[in-house]
Amino acid sequence: MYAQMVKSEATDEDPARLAAFQARIDADEKIEPKDWMPVGYRKTLIRQIGQHAHSEIVGQLPEGNWITRAPTLERKAILLAKVQDEAGHGLYLYCAAETLGVSRDELTEMLLDGRMKYSSIFNYPTLTWADMGAVGWLVDGAAIMNQVPLQRTSFGPYARAMVRICKEESFHQRQGFDIMMKMCSGTDAQKRMAQDALNRFWYPSLMMFGPSDKDSVHSAQSMAWKIKMNTNDELRQKFVDQTVPQAEYLGLNVPDKSLTWNADKGGYDFAEPDWAEFYDVLRGNGPCNVERIAARQKAWDDGAWVRYGLMAHAAKRRAAKLAAQ
Amino acid sequence: MSDPKTEWPLWEVFIRGQHGMSHRHVGSLHAADEAMAIKNARDVYTRRNEGVSIWVVEARHIAASSPSDKGPLYEPANSKVYRHPTFFDIPDDVGAM
Fold first, then answer.
1. Contact between residue B45 and residue B13 where contact means Cβ atoms under 8 Å apart
2. What is d(CA B57, CA A186) in angstroms, rounded to the nearest whole number?
3. What are the residues whose beta carbons fall under 8 Å from the beta carbon of A182, sequence distance 6 or more?
4. Which of A8, A76, B46, B63 could be stapled to A218 by a disulfide with Cβ–Cβ 3.0 to 4.6 Å?
5. A308 contacts in chain B (CB < 8 Å)
6. Chain B residues close to A168, C-beta within 8 Å
7. C-alpha distances in angstroms, A136 versus A59, A119, A155, A201?
8. pLDDT digits (tens, 9 = 90+) for A56-111
């Protein structure tokens, strides 16, 4: 998902305190920033929310790539609004992480020096306009699968950020599907472009949910703490079941020869993505890892004089105001 | 390493959603000064006409009660059920009250 393979931290605190904390979570009480919480809960959340925030911010890059080349002024305005929303989502999430005692600058530095990750999906390039459709439809669609249940997560500021994000996210998925519908009702070349986008984004979208739960060592603790609400496999299955009929509606073929309806489980059987590729992308070897971090580094470096300058200006104005009083 | 003196301060944002409603806390953001905080709040929290008025206050100026004060602060109210109108039984014959 936007937060993949989040390692949950061990906690060795007073068992009575831990039990009381777990009882609050089991009773669906929200944990707020000033409440006592296990060190492991705090650290895991910082890592998870930070990774989620970084994904929103880095996620602007593949779509920003097409703002100046959108086919119409209307599409351009819509894409601009969508990318602006992603910036907003990143900000809601950074603020939620900051309530846990990490600073915004620290979070940015951890992204830039590789201590924190962002979702593997944003390391794939957006080669054609149809990719804007595929990203909105599939990537935002997969994100929604994960974010809707996270509205009930145990940490108050994270849950509230998710409520805001979910309200806005369905616009993103619909605008993507709208692009796909337009392409699929267009010329043969446009249909081929749409099919090509689905071919390239299908498996990376399935990877967004993370490896199978039988290989996931961190799920149990995070699920007990209610900072992970569903298993990776549950969400992936739900995503496939929802998306395949949409692809059929578009007249596109899901690039999976083994895809079959399984009446017994009431869902599709489908092929796993190539997990070796997934781990390789996480290690930094995806098609765009270097480019993405370089773009964030450049924005951070080029923006330094603005950050310092505005602070100096604010200090000067405060001093002048004091002197005038 | 990040220098806390150069990080823009944190502001808490309160939005009045509609005329007649009170301002409500919606989240926080970083800005160098109050004018920028209001502009950023406009961009971050009112992209879909969520507000007709914005308040911002630097987070360090907010005093908050502590979770451990819950008992002394709120328990005294528990025993005063007579503050609620439903405490009093008014016969149906009396009519609406």
1. yes
2. 52
3. A133
4. A8
5. 6
6. 47-48
7. 11, 15, 28, 11
8. 999 999 999 999 999 999 999 999 999 999 999 999 999 999 999 999 999 999 99
